[in-house]
Structures are given as C-alpha cells and as structure tokens.
Request: fold
Amino acid sequence: MDPGEGKRMQRTAPILSALLVLALAAAPAAHAHRAGDGGSAVAAGPAAAHKPKLRECYDARCTFTVRKPVTFPIAKRFGFSKLTVRRVGGGSVSVTGRAPNGYAQVTVGRGGVGHLNGISIRVLSISDTKARVRLAPTG
Reply:
C-alpha cells in the first residue's frame, strides 16, 4: 500500500460515514408515506383528505364522505358506544349502533333520511365508490 493511499482513506472515511448516516436517516421517512396495502408511495396531503374527520361526529353533528366502513365513538346519550357507517352497494348506506348488550341498524337510500336512537342519518349523495352522509341529533 502506498503511504499516500492511507491518508486518502483517512480523509474519505468520515465523508462516507456521514453519507451512510444521512441515507439511513432518510430511509424511514420514505417508507412512512407508503400506502398500507399497495406499497406505492403517496403524498401525505391527499391521503389525509380521503379520511373523514370523525371526531366531529361524537355529538352526532357532522357531514362526511365514507369510502370504506368507518367506526367511531358516539355520545352515550344516544344509547350506543360506537357507530359504524358503511356503503351497501351503490344505492344505500347502513348505520349500525353498538351497545354493550346489543345493536340497532338502519339502512338509508340515496336522498333518504333514517333515524337511530335520536340520530338523524341523511344520505346526501352516493356512488359506487363513496357516499356523503350527514348526522344530526333529532331532539
């Protein structure tokens, strides 16, 4: 080994180490934006826009779009611990209220209104891929 070669290796080793650290630090961030089932990279903004904000629904005062079945907590005054909203086919929406000792369910068609233990469920629009639903207390 040439004496000059050892000095070059000493100078480049810290640079290579720094590049390796940077590459490893960036790797988890790249995987954090991957879709859970498809594995393709997606931007965080548009993915978040598709997820309904269901915290607002706790008091049954909200409007949201459902693409997949969603379950969220609901105020105990309605007699349920959770509500599940799902699209049924292309023409209706099913809402199920779950309580410790049972459940109640209503199915509402396009433009229709249903009621479930003091909650009004209105299907504003519906297609093969999504439904727009409005919840409101009846009393």
